[in-house]
Amino acid sequence: MSAERSFAVGDVVVYASHGIGTVEKTAPEGAEAELITVAFPTGLTVTLPRTRACIALRPLSTEAELKKVKLTLGTSDEAPAEAWARRHRRTQEKVSSGQVAALAEVVRDGVQHEQRRAATGSGTTAPSDRQLYLQARALLGAEIALCRGIEQTEADAWILAQVAEPVIAS
Fold first, then answer.
1. How confident is the model at residue 1 (pLDDT cuts 50, 70, 90)?
2. Whole-angstrom distance, CA of residue 78 vs CA of residue 65
3. Where are the domains of the chain?
4. Beta-carbon-side half-sphere exposure of residue 100 (alpha carbons within 13 Å)
5. Which CATH entry fits the domain spanning 12-59: 2.40.50, 1.25.40, 3.40.630, 2.40.10?
6. Predicted model pTM
7. What's the pLDDT tens digit per position in 86-135?
8. Are 23 and 10 in contact (CB under 8 A)?
9. What is the pLDDT of residue 2?
10. Torsion angle, alpha carbons of 112, 114, 119, 124, to 10
11. Helix (H) or strand (E) holding 137
12. Looking at domain 63-162, which CATH architecture does it have?
């Protein structure tokens, strides 16, 4: 996002580190210290300099972006075989980015992994991988729920309905 981004009290924003919050206070542009304060439903309040806020905060997804999420969730994209550490780092980067498309990829891969495990009765998921998947799923579900004005449980059900069944080699 550009440094020209404006923030107004009441704006709903996404902060990758904390999820969805509301702009609570802004310092007037040109003030000595241009700070943006964001409050989160958890009770956490974060104050950022405007330059950092322009990088770290983004608006809620649009319906067009949610259509791309639907496409991403619906693809059966087999992850390439790679070392656990490299795959884990890549997944962490996607979740940390807070970008809705990246979250959708992590959720799709996590759901498909769980489906494969259930179908074959084999394999395990590292707790840290599962934690990243669940974090991405919660963030994605919260954003979809807010964008569409639905309950979190409805958004989660929509996510699961979009995920393509993986092809399981016999």
1. very low
2. 23
3. 12-59, 63-162
4. 26
5. 2.40.10
6. 0.84
7. 989 999 999 999 899 999 999 999 998 888 888 887 777 788 889 999 99
8. yes
9. 44
10. 130
11. helix 127-148
12. Up-down Bundle (1.20)
Q: Which residues of 16-49 are buried (b: 16+ CB within 10 A; e: fewer)?
A: bebbbbebbebbeeeeeebebbbebeeeeebebe
The answer to whether residue 4 scores a pLDDT higher than 80 is no
Own/partner contacts of 82-90, CB < 8 Å, gap of 24 or more, are 84/126, 88/126, 88/128, 88/129, 88/132
Nearest to 90 by CA among 116, 100, 122, 80: 80
Write out the two tokens for 151.
Answer: 């309950």
What the block records as the tokens of 74 is: 């619906």
In eight-state DSSP terms, residue 17 is T
Torsion of CA 91, 60, 138, 24, to 10 degrees: 110
Predicted confidence (pLDDT) at residue 53 exceeds the cutoff of 80: yes
pLDDT at residue number 167: 57
